[in-house]
Amino acid sequence: MEATFTHIENDRAVMVDISKKDIIVRKAIASGEIVLNDATIEKIRTGTVEKGNVFSTARVASILAVKKTPELIPMCHQIPITKVDVDFSIHENIVRATVEVRSVGKTGVEMEALTGVSVALLTVWDMVKSAEKDETGNYPATGIENIKVLEKVKMNQN
User: Fold this and answer.
1) Which positions of the chain have pLDDT values less than 50?
2) Catalytic center at which residues (predicted)?
């Protein structure tokens, strides 16, 4: 079976017509990680990052990004976001962001969840970049990785 691209018709990019799809509750959960130096992880853990509360700032940025996804990704539909939950966990040399997005609508929310994770991790990087820079001003140990959809479901409205 050959894959088909739903956003291309006659070699033109198009927005998929979802007008005939049912309105249902949809949920997507995505996650990703940022690799950081041990000293930076400790600053986050102890709340001593110079720019302020890393997770509070990244959480707000993530929620804003979820709501603006159709402005960033051209073929995404504007959908009613009914819930955004952003969680962070600290591990040995990484911070993991997990974002759950829900909507009641005609199309999924996985792009919104992925956008939320991406912006959360970028915001963490921005908040701690002064601690991550080496003597040349570069980031040899810092990296964002493993951004993926963990779950995408359609749910009954009950």
Assistant:
1) none
2) 126
Token pair recorded at residue 141: 């140990």
Catalytic residue among 17, 85, 126, 134: 126
Binding residue positions: 75-77, 111-112
Between CA 43 and CA 53 the distance in angstroms is 10
For residue 95, give the CATH number of its domain.
3.30.70.640
Longest dimension (CA), the chain: 57
- Residue 61 resides in a domain: yes
Instruction: Note if the pTM is more than 0.70.
Output: yes
For the annotated binding site for substrate, the residues are 75-77, 111-112
> Among residues 22, 13, 29, which one has the least CA distance to residue 114?
29
Structural domain includes residue 51: yes
Closest of 76, 87, 56 to residue 7, by C-alpha: 76
Q: Is residue 38 annotated as a catalytic residue, yes or no?
A: no
Per-residue pLDDT of 9-52, as tens digits, reads 677 777 788 888 889 999 999 999 999 999 999 999 999 999 99
